[in-house]
Amino acid sequence: MVDGGRGVAGFEEAALERVRVARARLQAAQEADDAVEEAQAAEELEDALRVAHDHGVATDAGDGR
After folding, report:
1. Looking at residue 62, what DSSP letter applies?
2. CB-based contacts of 13, cutoff 8 Å, min separation 6
3. pLDDT of res. 9
4. Are 51 and 18 in contact (CB under 8 A)?
5. How far apart are the first and last CA of the chain?
6. Domain spans of the chain?
7. Distance (Å, rounded) from C-alpha 53 to C-alpha 32?
């Protein structure tokens, strides 16, 4: 079994966790006033949100999508 038996629910959980981690990374970079890390974190968050939404995974309303 390619998905390890987790199926769609496992993908959704992983996608949401990726979004949560990216948001936390972005917030930490902003608090640290680290422009380079902030840019990288913002790009990761954008990609995580895109992947989630492309696969029908609903994320918080605060993501602008």
Report:
1. G
2. 6
3. 86
4. yes
5. 33
6. 9-56
7. 29
d(CA 18, CA 21): 5
| pTM to 2 decimal places | 0.80
Rounded-to-integer distance, Cα 29 and Cα 2, Å:
35
Mean pLDDT of 10-29: 97
Angle between helices 35-54 and 7-31 (to 10 degrees): 160
Q: Mention every residue, 6+ apart, whose C-beta is less than 8 A from residue 16.
A: 52, 57, 59
pLDDT tier at 8 (50, 70, 90 boundaries)?
A: confident
Cα(42)–Cα(30) distance, rounded to whole angstroms? Answer: 10
CA dihedral 52, 53, 54, 56 (to 10 degrees): 90
pLDDT at residue 53, rounded to an integer: 96
